[in-house]
Design goal:
The complex is a heterotrimer.
Chain A lengths: L31 E5 L9 H5 L5 E4 L2 E4 L9 H5 L5 E5 L4
Antiparallel strand pairs in A: 1-4, 2-3
Chain B lengths: L1 E5 H11 L4 E4 L7 H12 L5 E4 L3 H13 L4 E6 H16 L5 E6 L13 H4 L7 E4 L3 H18 L3 E6 L7 E5 L3 H7 L23 H33 L6 E4 L6 E5 L3 H14 L4 E6 L1 E3 L3 H5 L7 E6 L9 H10 L7 E7 L8 H12 L9 E3 L4
Parallel strand pairs in B: 2-3, 2-4, 4-5, 5-7, 6-7, 10-11, 10-13, 13-14, 14-15
Antiparallel strand pairs in B: 1-8, 6-12, 9-11
Helix pairs in contact in B: 1-2, 1-6, 3-4, 6-8, 9-12
Chain C lengths: L1 E8 L4 H15 L3 E7 L8 E9 L14 E4 L19 E5 L4 H5 L6 E5 L1 H7 L11 H12 L4 H11 L4 H21 L1
Parallel strand pairs in C: 1-4, 4-5, 5-6
Antiparallel strand pairs in C: 1-3, 2-3
Helix pairs in contact in C: 1-4, 1-5, 3-4, 4-6, 5-6
Chain lengths: ~90, ~375, ~190
């Protein structure tokens, strides 16, 4: 096996991530996507409150899901009190 | 100016003189008067830093992770069970390369409930990546705390300043409290190179690849090795400014000694008296005081060892199923010498039993007479 | 080296007495000093020990004191106990909180120099502590400094003002009474 011969001081004391979380698009982790049915949505914003990845924003008086980051966890679908959301297979989308 | 201070107050005064920015501490037992004194100084305005009371020692250290990451000079103090509870965060602080300084009052660990001194608490933190200093006088507690900040901030590694519970922590003796201006010359404001900056947001301590972790650990060890020299430089500059000199290993009557006592902490002070008593009887006695435990001062130790000298290591600490901890560290450090000296282990004063000049003389004479056992420690007690 | 052992009860300020003595020695420029508490479980009323060392040169020994040159007893009942002179060197001084005379205290405990001081009465007269728990440590310190001649009174006064939390003038006055009580009995002897 090779020895680790490089100068240890070539490694910095710590490694920090220079990219903001916004640049880390996680949308491709998703196998199913949440869909909002406008006819049933009451604009209560519980989906915005519950989204663990903060990828629901408020546009006017309605929520908008940002699919570039949504991992498809479906917490919003589960929590929607108006039954205005469904989970749809990513393959068919 | 010389003042009559207990060891805990000497530590607190050093923290004030260092212009420490954030102190976080759990204020209840086994806490000592170190943070009580700082809280009083905070109340009177003498200490202008932040004082954060937290619900546990674990939280105290976690709080300092945040404060140090934000670029503050930080401090906490603990003891025995409190240090054990803090253990997880000790690894985190060193791995995150945060220059935290902590006063550690050496007290024995339960069960059973116990109050008094014993070094097993801090020596059990051997592998956490902290530098460790062991003090022998209250003056040294103050001085070592200032030196600790210098070294920690140079190396980006945390430092534990350890001292004997009660024997130093609660004992009063004259301590020279240096002028603020002199301390400011020795200890400029902290410049932590990775301080949080909202203009340049970064993610800290995020998941690296195994190869990166491997290299980070190697870099950490390289800095720990570099500490051997950096501590010596900091001690030299301290001596120039303050007139008090310390080194990783300190010899007393060591040049022509046939048997050397090896001691640390407060018993290393008592040992000077024991050596004088033995010398008065015409015996060639000497003492080595191990002041720095991490990084282990192998080279400095070897410089004191003439061929044929025997070492009688007196440990107030123990690793169950093995030996006294200093004894084992010394054996390991000397194994690669061409003709390593014989190292005999003596265990004494666990849980605060008195380590008297008579007990230290007994250890020396036992070793000199060849009654020691290289394979097992001798357990000594002054039963008065 | 002068080695002193203090006997008291929790709540009497025994450890603080040892500290004030050490501080007075330092402030007098009479040498090096060290005050060592013997901590047990800290309870009001339980017997407490403390030690002090005074020396011209650096003090390096950090163990307890087994053969003291002098003993200080802060509690009147403890003053009667044979335990307080255990290990005391022949001719050693005993500064004791007691209403009794030196001759009465020496009965059964010969060969020591006794310095009784009515510290409880002094303390209560100056409003220090309560009848069940008088704060006798400053009166005792005054007597101790006079008996052993290890510090001057202004240095002790400064040490007291630095150490006690309240009633500065009353504590200093109590110390002066203790100091003068020993000087008077020395002059009479």
């Amino acid at each position: 096996m090779p020895r680790l011969d490089e100068d240890p001081f070539l490694t910095p004391p710590i490694i920090t991530g220079g990219t903001p979380m916004k640049a880390n698009k996680t949308g491709h982790w998703r196998s199913a996507r949440p869909v909002i049915h406008d006819d049933k949505c009451t604009g209560c914003m519980l989906c915005w409150k519950f989204c663990p990845e903060a990828c629901v924003t408020i546009e006017g008086d309605r929520p908008k899901i940002h699919l570039d980051w949504c991992k498809g966890c479906a917490v919003c679908v589960e929590e929607c009190p108006a039954d205005a959301m469904s989970l749809e297979d990513e393959e068919g989308a | 100016m010389r003042k009559t201070l207990m060891g805990n107050h000497a530590a607190a005064v050093a923290v004030r003189l260092a212009r420490t920015g954030v102190v976080a501490a759990y204020p209840i037992t086994p806490q000592t008067q170190v943070v009580e004194a700082l809280a009083e100084m905070k109340a009177t305005g003498e200490f202008p830093g932040r004082f954060v009371r937290v619900e546990s020692e674990h939280s105290a250290m976690a709080c300092l992770v945040g404060a140090a990451q934000a670029g503050a000079r930080t401090f906490t103090a603990t003891s025995s069970q409190g240090l054990a509870y803090m253990h997880e965060m000790l690894h985190w602080v060193s791995g995150a390369r945060l220059p935290v300084v902590m006063a550690e009052v050496n007290r024995a660990l339960g069960a059973p409930w116990i109050l008094w001194t014993d070094q097993t608490d801090s020596l059990a933190q051997r592998d956490t990546g902290w530098l460790q200093f062991y003090c022998s006088t209250n003056q040294e507690i103050l001085d070592a705390t200032l030196i600790a900040y210098r070294v920690a901030e140079e190396l980006l590694l945390p430092v534990m300043v350890c001292y004997d519970g009660f024997t130093l922590s609660h004992t009063y003796e004259p301590v020279d409290v240096p002028d603020q201006a002199l301390v400011d010359r020795y200890l400029p404001p902290i410049q932590y190179p990775y301080a949080l900056d909202i203009k340049e947001p970064r993610a800290f301590s995020a998941l690296p690849k195994p190869q990166e972790y491997f290299r980070l650990r190697r870099r950490m060890d390289a800095d720990m090795q570099r500490a051997q020299e950096e501590v010596a430089v900091a001690e030299e500059e301290f001596a120039e400014l303050f007139g008090r000199r310390y080194s990783a290993v300190e010899g007393y009557q060591a040049e022509d000694a046939e048997v050397l006592l090896v001691t640390s902490g407060a018993p290393a002070s008592t040992a000077l008296d024991a050596v004088d008593r033995l010398r008065a009887k015409g015996l060639k006695a000497g003492n080595l005081r191990i002041r720095q435990f991490r990084p282990f001062p192998t080279a400095q130790l070897r410089r004191f060892l003439r061929p044929g000298v025997k070492l009688a290591v007196v440990d107030r600490n123990y690793s169950m199923g093995h030996h006294g901890i200093f004894c084992e560290e010394i054996k390991s450090a000397l194994y690669a010498m061409p003709n390593p000296p014989q190292v005999f282990g003596y265990v004494a004063g666990l849980g605060g039993g008195d380590i008297t000049p008579e007990l230290l003389c007994e250890a020396w004479e036992d070793c000199a007479a060849g009654r020691g056992d290289l394979n097992a420690p001798v357990w000594l007690e002054d039963s008065r | 080296m002068l080695e002193i052992r203090f006997h008291g009860r929790g709540g009497q300020g025994t450890v603080l007495a040892a500290k004030m003595l050490a501080d007075a020695v330092l402030r007098s420029g009479r040498g090096e000093c060290m005050a060592i508490p013997e901590f047990g479980v800290e309870r009001r009323g339980a017997p407490v020990l403390a030690y002090a060392r005074i020396s011209d040169g650096p003090i390096r020994v950090r163990s307890r004191i087994y053969f003291p040159d002098a003993v200080v007893v802060l509690d009147p009942l403890l003053s009667l106990s044979p335990l307080v002179v255990a290990g005391l060197k022949p001719g050693g001084a005993v500064v004791a909180n007691s209403d009794k005379s030196a001759e009465e205290l020496a009965v059964g405990r010969p060969g020591f120099r006794w310095y009784p001081v009515p510290a409880k009465e002094i303390a209560l007269r100056h409003g220090l502590g309560s009848k069940t728990s008088p704060m006798v440590n400053t009166a005792i310190c005054g007597a101790l400094v006079a008996a052993l001649q290890v510090a001057d009174f202004p240095a002790l006064e400064a040490a007291i003002r630095e150490s006690v939390p309240v009633k500065f003038d009353q504590n200093v006055a109590a110390a002066r009474e203790g100091y003068e009580a020993v000087l008077r009995s020395n002059a009479a002897a």
